[in-house]
Specification:
mainly alpha, 2 helices, about 75% helix
C-alpha cells in the first residue's frame, strides 16, 4: 500500500512540476515566480482531481426512477 501511495505522490509532484513549468514558459520565462507557479499548478490539478472524483461518485450512484 505504501508503494502505491508513494507512486501517486511522485506522480502528482511530477504533474505539478510540469504545469508550473508551463506557467513559467507562458509568462515568458520570467524568473521569481517559482513558488507562485507551483501553488497555482497544485491548486489547478487538485481542483481537476476533485471534479473527477465527484463525477465518478455521481456516476456510481443509482438513479431514481419515476413511478408510473
Amino acid at each position: 500500500m505504501a508503494t502505491r501511495t508513494t507512486t501517486k505522490a511522485a506522480s502528482l509532484s511530477q504533474a505539478i512540476a510540469e504545469r508550473a513549468h508551463d506557467l513559467y514558459l507562458t509568462r515568458g520565462c520570467e524568473h521569481g515566480h517559482d513558488l507562485e507557479d507551483w501553488l497555482t499548478a497544485e491548486s489547478e490539478l487538485k481542483a481537476v482531481s476533485a471534479k473527477k472524483r465527484t463525477t465518478a461518485t455521481a456516476a456510481r450512484k443509482p438513479r431514481k426512477t419515476a413511478k408510473t
